[in-house]
Write a structure and sequence with these properties.
3 helices; mainly beta; Methylamine Dehydrogenase, Chain H; Immunoglobulin-like; 4-stranded antiparallel beta sheet
């Protein structure tokens, strides 16, 4: 195989290989020789492209010890446009002949004096590489020309072709105005740069566009004399100011460029992180169910507790409120207690009311008595309104406030994990239920005694007296299908609604998500991918959300450390109901964001840019000093995940402690990110992350 051609060898080739007044620079990586005695390189003197296409002819004389497969020629315009073609047409023999290459010239091509940029050929015995034009880097010749033989190329800088028009017009469009929007884009998010050109030309505009050193866009779309195209700026693009070039072509092929089209900036953005600390004494609990109110304040509920906490946006001041209990919620080992064993979700409604769940749990044991209830806290009046759910051992977990029905008509949707739930009208155990009620009509009572639980069954929507839906003031319970497999509606965890009013929920023990159509009471199970971890509850599908454009149902997988996306448009596709032979659901895309050996993913929340934020936790005994918890986000186009550096964004990181994030929320009023951290020590931290510069619409 021929070696790389050095700069000295190239310089020597200019004097050695010549042809009249036209100097040839030869780059050879094959064992053939350009025959300078057989013929000259020629091109058609001129091509008129006004009324149709034309052809420029390039003739190449070659000799070789091995048969030549084909030869080709590339011509280039002053603005850098290239046209290239290769041919097997020759006279003579394959080892000593002249190859004729006809280069098609499209109608309305650029009018200018073009020149031969390169000549190339391949033989049957040479190496499979050739030298690039720009340096001594070897590139795969077969990749460029589609062949497997050897190849070489030569440069001819002096032979020219004139592409003209009978109209005599050789002036390109006049670019009278240009514009770039926005002027800056965050490096961490990426975005779209809109380029607008205002153009005039007597022959009409064929197309126009803009380009940077990395990307180009073009457009034929005209609106009010302005042509517009969008340049995609990917996350992680080089920071700093980038010049943009505008270009245009008229209908007879004349081109123009405007190199001073302005600049835009890829801006770096930092996340400043401050936090408030809430002691886990007095039944405070790990922070879960993080949400924000209209003033940007954060609220959370303490897991395994009866405490809700407010963190002020202005100064991170902590306000704790203890939920009153007038009686007992469950017994543990026969001993009555006033502490709920499960509190998983908190939601702040648009009217400022704070909704939360409190539920018993199968951890209590089948013989113990437990209740679940949904609470509403009014921050203005500092008052509670408690809705006691019918049934025993309901295990209320996820909660969704459905405000789509209009002011005063909201429905509250509650998931009941219910491994051991019972009511007077159904047997136990079952896999879980969903309850819906309308808080302005349903019965509420802040008192609860263990002996009165069975009387609540009268509040169920059973058709008696016309009570069929929550609009009748009753609690409607939707029974989820029982499953004996590891996939199904097992311990439903969190819930959300789409724009159709369908209810979507994750199944923690069922490695799946599911959809309930309330009008038909039909539940459809969509299995997630086969679990990739040894977690005891499958992949542990946990939190769930709908993308801002409604196209995705997204979810976290606690056990697998993944974030999943279900294609909402395929919700009625039977192919989505099972996994394929490879253990994948064809309707689901999953991104592995952490190593499930040590870490998990917990809550998710969309920001104003369309990025899906998530947090990670540590458990299952990571090696000391090796793992951190952190935050991250999935890019809006679902092209990948970004994990933020723990040392920059995690308050007081300690790799030796079991520090995990359990809640995350986005404040739409100012673009801030809230996150909740629950260490194994006696302090819970709720952090406020502020992008600097701060912008709720993702622009610097």
């Amino acid at each position: 195989m021929a070696g790389l051609v050095t700069q000295a060898q190239r310089a020597a080739a200019i004097s050695v290989v010549g042809f009249g007044a036209a100097a040839l620079v030869a780059y050879y990586a094959a064992n053939y020789t350009l025959d300078t005695t057989v013929t000259t390189f020629t091109l058609t003197d001129a091509v008129d492209v006004t009324s149709g296409s034309g052809v420029a002819t390039c003739e190449i004389g070659l000799t070789s010890t091995d048969p030549i497969l084909d030869a080709g020629c590339t011509i280039e315009s002053p603005t850098g446009r290239t046209l290239s073609h290769q041919s097997t047409n020759f006279t003579g023999t394959t080892t000593n002949g002249t190859w004729t290459v006809d280069i098609p010239i499209p109608q309305n091509e650029e009018q200018a004096t073009w020149f031969i940029q390169r000549v190339f050929a391949r033989d049957t015995a040479g190496p499979t590489e050739k030298l690039s034009l720009t340096g001594a880097e070897m590139v795969a010749y077969a990749d460029i020309l589609g062949g497997t033989g050897g190849g070489g190329e030569v440069i001819q800088a002096d032979i020219e072709i004139a592409i003209t028009s009978t109209t005599g017009d050789t002036v390109g469009p006049v670019i009278s105005a240009t514009g770039l929007t926005p002027s800056s884009i965050y490096q961490v998010f990426g975005g779209t740069l809109s380029c607008e050109n205002t153009l005039t030309d007597a022959n009409g505009i064929k197309d126009t566009g803009c380009s940077t050193s990395e990307v180009t866009c073009s457009s034929t779309a005209l609106s009010g004399g302005v042509w517009k195209c969008d340049l995609p700026i990917l996350p992680g693009a080089a920071a700093g100011s980038t010049p943009v070039t505008a270009f245009a072509r008229d209908n007879i092929g004349n081109r123009s460029r405007y190199v001073d089209n302005g600049t835009f900036t890829v801006a770096t953005a930092g996340l400043t992180y401050s936090y408030a600390q809430s002691l886990q004494t007095l039944d405070a609990g790990l922070p879960l169910g993080l949400d924000t109110d209209a003033s940007g304040n954060a609220w959370y509920i303490g897991e395994f507790s009866r405490t809700i906490v407010k963190i002020a946006n202005a100064d991170l001041a902590v306000t704790r409120v203890t939920v009153p209990i007038n009686g007992n919620l469950y017994t543990s080992g026969g001993t009555p207690t006033t502490q709920t064993i499960l509190a998983e979700k908190l939601v702040v409604a648009s009217d400022g009311m704070v909704w939360f769940t409190q539920g018993g749990c199968h951890l209590c044991g089948a013989t113990d008595i437990s209740h679940s209830r949904v609470g509403r806290y009014n921050p203005t009046l500092a008052s509670f309104q408690m809705y006691n759910l019918p049934g025993l051992r309901n295990e209320a977990t996820g909660l969704f406030v459905d405000e789509s029905r209009g002011a005063g008509n909201s429905w509250i949707w509650v998931l009941e994990a219910g491994f051991e739930s019972t009511t007077a009208v159904e047997a136990a155990p079952h896999s879980g239920t969903i309850i819906a009620f309308r808080p302005d009509l349903a019965a509420w009572d802040n008192a609860m005694t263990l002996g009165g639980w069975s009387g609540l069954d009268a509040e169920l929507c059973d058709g008696t007296g016309g009570n069929t839906t929550p609009d009748d003031g009753c609690f409607q319970r939707f029974q989820l299908p029982v499953t004996a497999t590891s996939v199904g509606a097992r311990w439903p965890s969190h819930v959300v609604a789409d724009t159709n009013g369908d209810i979507w929920f994750a199944n923690f023990w069922g490695t799946s998500i599911a959809r309930l159509v309330p009008s038909t009471e039909v539940v459809t199970i969509y299995p997630a991918h086969e679990p990739r971890s040894a977690f005891g509850a499958g992949s542990g599908t946990w939190d769930i959300a709908i993308s801002p454009d409604g196209s995705r149902v997204v979810f976290s997988e606690y056990g697998d450390g993944d974030i999943g996306s279900f294609d909402w448009s395929r919700r009625d596709d039977s192919a989505c109901l099972s996994r394929d032979a490879g253990g994948k659901n064809p309707c689901i895309t999953e991104i592995a964001v952490v190593d499930p050996t040590w870490k998990n993913t917990h809550d998710i929340a969309y920001d104003g840019c369309g990025s899906l934020w998530f947090n990670t936790g540590i458990e299952r005994g990571p090696p000391a000093g090796t793992e951190y918890s952190t935050l991250g986000f999935i890019r809006p186009d679902w092209s990948g995940a970004v994990l933020l550096e723990p040392t920059d964004f995690t308050p007081d990181p300690n790799p030796d402690a079991d520090v995990s994030y359990h809640g995350i929320a986005f404040d739409s009023t100012n673009g801030n990110i809230w996150s909740a951290q629950g260490p194994t020590t006696n302090a819970a931290k709720v952090g406020l992350g502020r992008w600097v510069p701060v912008s709720a619409d993702c622009t610097p």
